[in-house]
Amino acid sequence: MKSDIKLFENGKRLDGRKPDELRNIKIETGVLHRAEGSCYLEWGGNKVIVAVYGPREAIPRHTQNPLRAIVNARYNMAAFSVDDRKRPGPDRRSREISKVISEALGHAIFLERFPRASIDVNIEVLEAEAGTRCAGLTAAGVALVDAGIPMRDIPVACAAGKIEGQVVLDLGKEEDNFGSADLPIAISPRTGEILLLQMDGHMTGDEFNTALDMAIKGCHTVSEIQKKAITEKYQKTEGD
Ligand code: ADP
Question: What is the pTM of this model?
Answer without folding.
Answer: 0.97
